[in-house]
């Protein structure tokens, strides 16, 4: 997750290309920004309603609904989502995958320049920055990654290194718990 303009889409595209990770393209009722926009599955309100029985992630932003299904999560490695969506996801996902939440961080002026560079109007960029102020007030994350860097590939590499370290630490913790459980049983 990350505030608007932190480079989430750019970094996830690098993770896909460089590391072979599979992205989850969430369903949304939002209209496409451009005719060839990717990263979501654009559906009608009626189609969205039919997804509810398999839904494990849900959020709303700017009057539009976003969700992911259990089937999508099973097939993916990376899911871009906002803090409200993470809260919903952690309370509704019952699958076997270890979920690691990562937040990309970038300064406000960097994010503003990126939004303007991708074609957002002045007011749209300002509204997104204003919205993110509240939406990201208290995100609960496992990792934070500096996304101020000019090279998004460095950000992706830093993210992958951090995730690998966290997974290794988690594994050591599980092994230590097993050892401690065995020690107390004897």
Provide structural commentary.
- The protein has 186 residues and is of the alpha/beta class.
- A four-stranded mixed sheet has the order 2-1-4-3. A two-stranded parallel sheet has the order 5-6.
- The longest helix is centred in the C-terminal third of the chain and has 34 residues.
- The radius of gyration is 18 Å and the shape is globular.
The low-confidence parts are none
| Arithmetic mean pLDDT | 90
**Number of separate helices:** 7
The coarse silhouette is: globular
C-alpha end-to-end distance: 45 Å
Strand-and-helix sequence, N→C?
A: HEEHEEHHEHHEH
* Largest sheet, strands/sense/barrel: 4 strands, mixed
Computed CA radius of gyration, to the nearest angstrom: 18 Å
Residues in helices, as a percent range: 40-55%
What percent strand? 5-15%
**Number of strand elements:** 6
Please list the strands of the largest sheet in the order they lie side by side.
2-1-4-3
Secondary-structure content class: alpha/beta
Task: Summarize the model shown.
By secondary structure, this protein is of the alpha/beta class. Helices cover 49% and strands 15% of the residues. The protein is globular, with a radius of gyration of 18 Å.
Question: How is the topology of this model organized?
Answer:
Elements: H1 8-19, E1 26-28, E2 40-42, H2 45-50, E3 55-61, E4 64-69, H3 70-75, H4 83-92, E5 102-105, H5 108-117, H6 122-135, E6 143-146, H7 152-185
Parallel strand pairs: 1-2, 5-6
Antiparallel strand pairs: 1-4, 3-4
Helix pairs in contact: 1-7, 5-6
List keywords for this structure.
alpha/beta, 186 residues, two-stranded parallel ribbon, single chain
């Amino acid at each position: 997750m990350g505030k608007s303009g932190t480079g989430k889409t750019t970094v996830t595209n690098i993770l896909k290309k460089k590391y072979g990770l599979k992205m989850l393209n969430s369903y949304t009722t939002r209209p496409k920004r451009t005719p060839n926009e990717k990263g979501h599955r654009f559906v009608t309100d009626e189609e969205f309603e039919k997804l509810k029985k398999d839904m494990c992630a849900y959020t709303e932003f700017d009057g539009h609904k976003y969700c992911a299904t259990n089937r999508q999560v099973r097939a993916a490695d990376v899911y871009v989502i906002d803090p409200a969506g993470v809260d919903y996801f952690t309370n509704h996902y019952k699958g076997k995958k270890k979920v690691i939440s990562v937040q990309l961080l970038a300064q406000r002026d960097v994010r503003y320049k990126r939004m303007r560079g991708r074609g957002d109007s002045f007011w749209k960029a300002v509204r997104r920055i204003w919205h993110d102020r509240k939406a990201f007030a208290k995100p609960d994350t496992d990792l934070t990654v500096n996304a101020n860097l000019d090279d998004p590939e460095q950000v992706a590499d830093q993210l992958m290194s951090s995730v690998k370290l966290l997974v290794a630490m988690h594994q050591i913790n599980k092994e230590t718990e097993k050892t401690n459980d065995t020690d107390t049983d004897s």
